[in-house]
Amino acid sequence: MDPEPLRPLLDRRLLLFTGKGGVGKSTVVAALAVEAAARGLHPLIVELGHRATMQGIFADATGVRVDIGHEPVPVTVDRTVWAANLDLEAAIVDYLADQVRLRSVARAIASNRALQGLFRAAPAVREIVTLNKLRLFERASTRGRPTWGPILVDLDATGHALMLLEMPRMLDELLADGPLRGLIDALTGLFTDPTRTLLSLVTLPGEIPVQETLELYQRLGGEHRVPLGALFVNDVPPPAIAGELRPHLPELAALADHANLPDLAADLQLAEQAIARDEQVLTLVARLQREIDLPLALLPRLLPHEHDLAGLQRLGRAALVASARSPSPVRWDMQERA
Q1: In a domain, 276, yes or no
Q2: For residues 94 and 99, what is the distance between their CA atoms, to the nearest angstrom?
Q3: Are 171 and 180 in contact (CB under 8 A)?
């Protein structure tokens, strides 16, 4: 049996990640990139918008600050992990250069103030040029081999991510022919090809994030044609009480009551609350397993000192291990922290 059921994720050229804000999606993306690099691959992280999340993550991990811009830059000292943050104006130039074949002409067109206003106001321009830039990254080659692989895309908030991914299908229905027809066909082919592209979901083991993830999964199944990859449940706490100790808690409670040991009774009460929290996590994970037909990986809660490259790599390795489809999901082994 493959000990890393999610390892084939790294064989895809384009890995997309979405989830509600605050679920640790960017950390999961960074961790998978670090692990991919450790396996000899050439990962490129792509952020959308003007966020600087990766800049902060890798500054903390390496102690070196790197300014991430529209074109890829290395974010690790050994230059094995690269990142880019897509910029609208630069993406427009890239799109125009891809059409007119002369970047100087493309810059002249994009710098026209009237056209700049049109580009910003026109519907779908941002989405089209963003998707086109991802396509350019995907087809880039060096010495006859793909320059990047995998390309890990940290999508914006879920609503915008869904609109972005739906754009090729919407334009496919609207455009019978014209200059955009070839591009839309190419984008549709890329983002619906399960051998090249997968969209994974990231969530937390909490009631609200789990419910939102279930709703997102249903929406993806009903409206979108982007192939799905895996579900990552981030920040899963280790068991608060070792399993072998739990059967003895009633005996200890009886002892605390009989011997009038208030400190022990208070500790046991805290233990019972911790066990209840553990059971809630297990219940939520079991619901995800039951209602979402995707490989599931449970990821550990990183401690403050674990946000270095070694910690990210351990997290990335854990992200490639999917749990069995059973009511008892794989739990984070504290021995791994040693």
Answers
A1: no
A2: 9
A3: yes
Angle at 280 between CA 278 and CA 285, to 5 degrees: 95
What string of DSSP letters covers 83-128?
Answer: EEE--HHHHHHHHHHHHHS-HHHHHHHHH-HHHHHHHHHSTTHHHH
Q: Considering only CA atoms, which of 45, 56, 24 is closest in space to residue 298?
A: 24
* CATH number, domain with residue 15: 3.40.50.300
Q: What is the pLDDT of residues 48-84, one digit of tens each?
A: 866 679 999 999 999 999 999 989 999 999 999 999 9
Question: Does 130 map to a domain?
Answer: yes
Q: Nearest CA to 68 among 129, 154, 138?
A: 154
Helices 125-139 and 88-100: crossing angle in degrees, nearest 10, is 70
Question: For residue 172, what are the domain limits?
Answer: 7-240+292-337
Are the beta carbons of 82 and 72 closer than 8 angstroms? yes
Q: What's the length of the chain? A: 338
Going by C-alpha positions, the residue among 199, 37, 216 that lies closest to residue 134 is: 199
Say which residue the tokens 């929290």 belong to: 277
**pTM for this one?**
0.82
Q: Are 218 and 291 in contact (CB under 8 A)?
A: no
Amino acid found at 136: L
Q: Decide if 91 is inside a domain.
A: yes
Q: What would the DSSP string read from start to end of 3-15?
A: S-TTGGGGGSSEE
CB 210 within 8 A of CB 288: yes
Q: How far apart are alpha carbons 81 and 72 in whole angstroms?
A: 10
Cis omega (within 30 of 0) for bond into 8: no
The dihedral region occupied by 246, where left means phi > 0, alpha psi between -120 and 50, and beta the remainder, is alpha
Taking residues 36-53, what's their average pLDDT?
89
- Rounded to an integer, what distance in angstroms lies between the CA atom of residue 273 and that of residue 335? 24
The total number of structural domains that make up the chain: 1
Classify residue 253: in a domain, yes or no: no
Cβ contact 105:141 at 8 Å: no
DSSP-derived pairing of the beta strands 197-203 and 82-85 = unpaired
